[in-house]
Write a sequence for this structure.
C-alpha cells in the first residue's frame, strides 16, 4: 500500500495555500497526501531535549518538532522564514518554482506623499524599514505585524499611515492584491522571498524521492546563493540585509545583488556580481566578503552600540535572529550554547536480556537509545516516562508506554506506591537530577542506571553589563555557575528549572509556557515595568 504523505503546515491562510499547492503537485505525480495543520507555539508544550536538536525558527519550530516526533512527514514553509541552519535530522527536500519576489506598497491615498517630507508608512520588516528610510530619509516608519489579512485590515483602519509595504507573493497567492499596488523594484528583497520550501526527515527516502520531483533547479540555485550570503553576513547580529539572485537565460549567468544597511537607513553598502551557472559556488562568499571588506562588520557593530539599551540579557542557548527580534529593541541580547549533548554507544549486551521495567525521563533518552538500536532490537516490557511529548515519541518509535507522569518525582512516587516493582532500568544522562533514583532507592527499589548520553557543560564568562540570564534546564544553570555570579535575574523556561535556580538566585522569573518565545516575552514584560 502506498504511503500517504502527511503535510505539516501552519494554520494561516497563506500557509494553507502553500501546503495545498504542494499537495496538488504531489497528486499530479501520483502521490497521495493529507494536510496536518499545526497549532501555534502556545498550543504546543516543548520539553527541554528537543531544543538541543537545534530548533530555532519562530515560524518553523513547531513543524520541526512535529516532524521529529513522527506526526508529519514533510513541512511546507515560506523559505525566507526558515533559519539558515536546519535542525539535526531535517533537510531541505525541495524548493518550488519561485513566485514574485518583489515588495509592493499598498497606498491609503495617492502617490504625492513620496515627494513630501512628512510621509508615514508601516512595515514590520527591519529590511524594508531601513531601505525605505534610505530612499526617503525624512519619512517615518511605524511597526506593522500580523498575517497578511490582519496587516491589510490594520492599514485600512489607520487614519495616519500613507501606506504599508508587503511581499507581493503573499498577496498574489491569496488573490487579494489591491488595485493600485505599486511595485518597489529598488527595494532588494529578503533572501529567498517568494520561494516555497519543503522540509523532510533526512532518513525518509520515500518522501525525499517524491519531493525531489517537485524541485525547481534554477530557484534552488538562486535562493541557495541568497541564503548563503545572509548566513555569512549575519554573524549573530540582527541587521537589515537584502539579497536577490536570478539566472539570465541568454548568458547562463547567475546575477546577484545584495545590500547591508544601518537600521536607520543612513548607511548602505551594496554589491552586484555575476558568475557562470555551474561555477557559482563562491558567488555568495565573494559578495559577503565585498560587504565585509567595505566596513560591513563595523556598520553592524556601530548599529548595535548606537541603540539605547535599558538592559542586556544572555541566553544560555543560541537564539535565531527571528527570536531575537521578538525582544524589545531596548533590550540587548547575547547568546551561546551552555549545554551540548552527545549520544553514547550503548553496549549490545544491554539489550540481550529483557528489561522488565524501564524508566526514561526525556526525549534525549529516547533518541539516544534509538541511536544505538533499532526498534526490533529493543527488548522493553514496561516503559515508564516523564512528559507527554516523551510518551508520544516512545510510542511512535519504540512501543507502548505503561505509565506517564508530569515530572520525575511524580513518576517515582507512582512506581513506589502504585506498583510492586523492585527493580528498574533508568536510561539517563551522566548529568541529571537525583530526584527519581534517590526516591526509588529510599523505597527499596533498585535502580540500574544506563548512561545513554552525555550532557557536556560549555560555560562562558559573561560581561558585567548582563543583568538577566535565560535558562532552559537545570544543567544550563550548573554550566552557568562554573564561570558566573548569581547576582542577576534568572529567567526560567519552566518550574523544574526555576526550582534549581532558586537555590542560587535571589530573583527568579518563570515563563507562562515552557517554550523559548514565552521566556522572551517574560523578559520584555519584566523590563517594561
Amino acid at each position: 500500500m502506498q504511503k500517504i504523505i502527511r503535510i505539516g503546515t501552519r494554520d494561516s491562510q497563506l500557509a494553507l495555500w502553500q501546503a495545498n499547492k504542494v499537495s496538488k503537485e504531489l497528486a499530479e505525480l501520483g502521490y497521495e497526501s493529507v494536510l496536518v495543520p499545526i497549532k501555534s507555539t502556545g498550543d504546543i508544550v516543548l520539553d527541554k531535549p528537543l531544543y538541543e536538536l537545534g530548533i530555532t525558527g519562530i515560524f518553523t519550530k513547531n513543524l520541526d518538532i512535529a516532524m521529529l516526533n513522527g506526526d508529519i512527514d514533510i513541512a511546507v514553509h515560506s523559505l525566507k522564514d526558515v533559519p539558515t541552519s536546519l535542525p539535526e535530522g531535517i533537510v531541505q527536500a525541495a524548493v518550488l518554482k519561485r513566485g514574485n519576489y518583489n515588495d509592493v506598497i499598498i497606498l491609503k491615498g495617492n502617490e504625492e506623499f513620496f515627494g513630501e517630507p512628512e510621509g508615514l508608512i508601516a512595515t514590520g520588516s527591519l529590511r524594508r524599514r531601513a531601505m525605505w528610510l534610505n530612499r526617503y530619509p525624512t519619512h517615518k516608519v511605524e511597526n506593522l505585524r500580523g498575517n497578511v489579512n490582519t496587516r491589510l485590515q490594520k492599514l485600512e483602519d489607520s487614519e495616519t499611515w500613507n501606506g504599508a509595504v508587503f511581499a507581493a507573493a503573499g498577496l498574489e497567492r491569496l488573490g487579494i492584491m489591491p488595485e493600485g499596488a505599486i511595485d518597489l523594484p529598488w527595494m532588494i528583497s529578503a533572501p529567498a522571498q517568494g520561494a516555497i520550501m519543503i522540509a523532510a526527515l533526512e532518513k525518509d527516502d520515500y518522501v525525499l524521492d517524491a519531493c525531489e520531483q517537485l524541485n525547481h533547479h534554477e530557484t534552488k540555485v538562486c535562493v541557495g546563493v541568497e541564503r548563503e550570503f545572509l548566513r555569512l553576513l549575519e554573524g549573530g547580529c540582527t541587521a537589515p540585509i537584502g539579497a536577490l539572485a536570478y539566472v539570465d537565460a541568454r548568458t547562463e549567468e547567475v546575477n546577484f545583488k545584495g545590500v547591508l544597511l544601518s537600521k536607520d537607513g543612513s548607511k548602505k553598502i551594496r554589491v552586484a556580481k555575476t558568475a557562470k551557472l555551474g561555477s557559482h559556488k563562491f558567488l555568495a562568499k565573494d559578495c559577503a566578503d565585498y560587504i565585509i571588506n567595505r566596513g560591513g562588520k563595523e556598520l553592524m557593530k556601530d548599529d548595535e552600540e548606537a541603540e539605547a539599551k535599558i538592559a542586556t540579557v544572555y541566553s544560555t542557548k543560541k537564539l535565531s535572529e527571528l527570536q531575537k527580534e521578538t525582544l524589545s529593541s531596548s533590550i540587548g541580547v547575547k547568546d551561546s550554547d551552555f549545554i551540548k549533548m552527545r549520544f553514547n554507544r550503548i553496549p549490545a549486551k544491554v539489550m540481550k536480556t529483557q528489561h522488565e521495567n524501564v524508566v526514561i525521563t526525556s526525549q534525549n533518552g529516547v533518541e539516544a537509545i534509538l541511536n544505538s538500536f533499532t526498534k526490533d532490537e529493543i527488548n522493553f516490557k514496561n516503559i515508564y516516562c516523564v512528559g507527554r511529548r516523551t510518551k508520544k515519541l516512545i510510542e511512535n518509535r519504540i512501543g507502548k508506554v505503561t505509565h506517564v507522569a508530569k515530572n520525575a518525582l511524580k513518576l517515582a512516587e507512582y512506581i513506589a506506591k502504585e506498583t510492586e516493582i523492585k527493580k528498574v532500568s533508568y536510561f539517563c544522562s551522566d548529568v541529571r537530577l537525583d530526584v527519581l533514583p534517590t526516591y526509588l532507592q529510599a523505597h527499596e527499589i533498585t535502580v540500574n542506571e544506563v548512561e545513554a548520553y552525555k550532557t557536556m557543560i560549555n560555560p562562558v564568562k559573561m560581561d558585567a553589563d548582563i543583568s538577566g540570564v535565560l535558562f532552559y534546564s537545570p544543567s544550563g544553570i550548573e554550566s552557568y555557575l562554573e564561570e558566573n555570579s548569581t547576582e542577576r535575574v534568572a529567567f526560567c523556561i519552566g518550574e523544574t528549572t526555576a526550582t534549581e535556580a532558586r537555590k542560587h538566585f535571589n530573583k527568579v522569573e518563570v515563563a507562562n509556557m515552557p517554550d523559548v518565545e514565552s521566556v522572551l516575552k517574560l523578559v520584555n514584560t519584566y523590563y517594561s515595568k
